[in-house]
Amino acid sequence: MQTQATQTAAIEVDTVSKTFGTDKALNEVSIRIAPGEMVALIGPSGSGKSTLLRHVAGLLAGDRDAGSVRIFGHQVQKNGTISPDIRKIRAEVGFIFQQFNLVGRLPLLTNVMTGMLARVGTWRSLLGWFSREEKERAMQALDCVGLAEHATQRAGTLSGGQQQRAAIARAMEQRARIILADEPIASLDPESARLVIECLAALNRNQGLTVLVSLHQVQFALQYCVRTIAMKDGCVVFDGPSQELTPTALRNIYGVRKSGVDLDGTAPLHIGVRPEPALLGAAA
Ligand SMILES: Nc1ncnc2c1ncn2[C@@H]1O[C@H](COP(=O)(O)OP(=O)(O)O)[C@@H](O)[C@H]1O
Ligand SMILES: [Mg+2]
Questions:
Q1: Which of 19, 29, 50, 218 to probe ligand 1 with, by most ligand atoms within 8 A of CB?
Q2: How many Å is the maximal CA-CA distance in the chain?
């Protein structure tokens, strides 16, 4: 068995920078995430979280002078050039956005099955010509996130939290090995947010998926992720055990105003509290 030191990283970002005009959105960012980790990405608005996630997925190319991104050893980009193999590599990555990105007028099951777009011919997916086995897999994924009973319902008629869990089911259907989630719970009420993050945590725990999730609510990072990476002004300013994110560390990241409380200023931080067992199958 490979040791941690020699094991191929699930995600490896090496000195990536990204400049928009005169704004350095990423400043020589390097991170390494092992297979099976669930890592929180935190930092104030504008600190570079979304930009970093988009670079990892190969949706954005970094500055030309240096830097590379690898996923399971496969090059996503190097020196500002996206790999020609990106389509194949991206099939390994499920990207979850804040705004769900489902097709509202299509049934949930169809939305989940579009996760296969990366793996089957596009025309076949668009024609809705799915095999029984593919449908069964999609149903299983929906069942896993507690939405089997809504399979035939139009996605647009479901709540935000349900749509986000369906987006997670779509990533499962895609057979992604990595999930990149960009503020997936930012627009949800606390209970829906908890169900969504517990789905991600269960996928990580039960299926060994690697999860990198940016979170606006710091206490979710502390509760659900053993490790946190914090960004500020395009730089990684903390990378380590979430338990070490003390109020003082958070004050340095977010500034004085938001220290000691969550970012909405409503609740004290609960550092190091472990989550309840995942509520897979629970309805929103
Ligand atoms: N497409 C873009 N064009 C110009 N500037 C951008 C673009 N995307 C992000 N930025 C800038 O890069 C910085 C980091 O943004 P972002 O990654 O969205 O931060 P976060 O997700 O942490 O809020 C910000 O200053 C933002 O304005
Ligand atoms: Mg963002």
A1: 50
A2: 56
Which ligand 1 atom minimizes the distance to the CA of 53? 17
User: What is the 8-class DSSP label of residue 98?
Assistant: T
Give the tens place of pLDDT for each residue, 194-252.
999 999 999 999 999 999 999 988 999 999 999 999 999 999 999 999 999 988 889 98
Q: Which ligand 1 atom is at minimum distance from the Cα of 51?
A: 17
DSSP E strands in the chain: the ranges are: 11-20, 23-33, 38-42, 68-71, 74-78, 81-82, 93-96, 178-182, 210-214, 227-232, 235-241
- Residue 25 exposed, middle or buried by CB count within 10 Å (0-12, 13-18, 19+): buried
pTM for this model (two decimals): 0.87
Query: What span, in angstroms and rounded, lies between the C-alpha atoms of 177 and 179?
Result: 7
Q: Closest residue (by CA) to atom 5 of ligand 1?
A: 20
Q: At what angle do helices 160-173 and 190-207 cross, to 10 degrees?
A: 20
Ligand minimally distant from the alpha carbon of residue 18: 1
Q: Are 284 and 158 in contact (CB under 8 A)?
A: no
Q: Give the number of the atom of ligand 1 that is nearest the alpha carbon of residue 48.
A: 17
- List of domains in the chain: 8-92+177-275 (3.40.50.300), 100-176 (no CATH)
- Look at ligand 1, atom 20, and give the residue with the nearest C-alpha: 46
Ligand 1 pocket, 68 CB below 6 A? no
